[in-house]
Every structure is written in structure tokens, then in C-alpha cells.
Design goal:
The chain is α+β, with helices and mostly antiparallel strands. It has a single domain, classed as Alpha-Beta Plaits (2-Layer Sandwich), CATH 3.30.70. The two termini are 21 Å apart. Helices cover 34% and strands 29% of the residues. The chain is built from 2 helices and 4 strands; from the N terminus they run E-H-E-E-H-E. The radius of gyration is 10 Å and the shape is globular. It has a 4-stranded antiparallel beta sheet with strand order 2-3-1-4, covered by helices on one side.
């Protein structure tokens, strides 16, 4: 499995919420990694869907930044 970084957040709670949101929307292999800021990673074949899901919910996050 190959994973790609699709977003970053500044708070651990937001990282957990983003991963839960992705799991709830059938992006099964999503996770967060980091210590000061957190990267949201997903399986490469699910990246487009994951970005679409997070885009629809951007207003729910204070520090979520989608990466190109």
C-alpha cells in the first residue's frame, strides 16, 4: 500500500476528527501522523475521494489545510 499526505492540521483533536470523518465516508486507510502539527495520510488510490470529503467539511475545522 502506498500512502500520500493530503492535509495538515495544527491540533491533535482536529486530526482525530478528520480521520474519523474520512473513515465514516469509506476512506478506510486514513490516519494522522505528527507531534507539533499533524499530517493526514490516506491510501493513494483514495486520495481524490478523501480530498473531496474534507473539502465539503472545511468549515468544521479551524486549522485544516488541504495540500496540493
Amino acid at each position: 500500500m502506498e500512502f500520500v499526505l493530503i492535509a495538515q492540521v495544527n491540533e491533535f483533536a482536529e486530526a482525530l476528527n478528520a480521520v474519523k470523518l474520512l473513515h465514516d465516508n469509506a476512506v478506510e486507510h486514513a490516519g494522522a501522523e505528527g507531534s507539533i502539527c499533524y499530517g493526514i495520510v490516506v491510501e493513494s488510490c483514495m486520495a481524490e475521494k478523501a480530498v473531496e470529503v474534507l473539502s465539503r467539511h472545511l468549515q468544521e475545522f479551524e486549522s485544516l489545510t488541504l495540500l496540493d
